[in-house]
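Reopening this ticket.

The earlier resolution said the output was attached, but the attachment link was broken on my side. Pasting everything inline this time so it's all in one place.
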Amino acid sequence: MLGLLTTLKKIFFWNYARNTWQWDVLCVVILIFIFLTPKSWFSGSERSQAREHPNPIVKTVLVSAEVVGNEQDKGRIERQVQLMTGRDQFEIVAVRKVLANDGRLVSFEVDIR
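Inline output:
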């Protein structure tokens, strides 16, 4: 019984020299575990649930105020964003004014996904 506990202690604390057969067996067991473990064992983990970014905004584009008259002109904003990004399909999430220090309208920040 004492020999079994000593062996388990050596395995648990990895108490073998590198050039022994026990070291080689432990390395093979670890590699087998790494490569043969089914992905389904880890599918319910917190990491898989956190893959989706909490903020759905992919990109924020800065559109000049000279190009777009006001923030209500969604058609002009969409055309300008399409020209700037080269993307045909996107969704405008939000449009915000960017003001200079003196209160003058400089541009619009357009959040798209």
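Reporter confirms the inline version is readable. Residues 2-48 form one domain. Helices lie at 2-12, 21-36, 46-49, 74-85.
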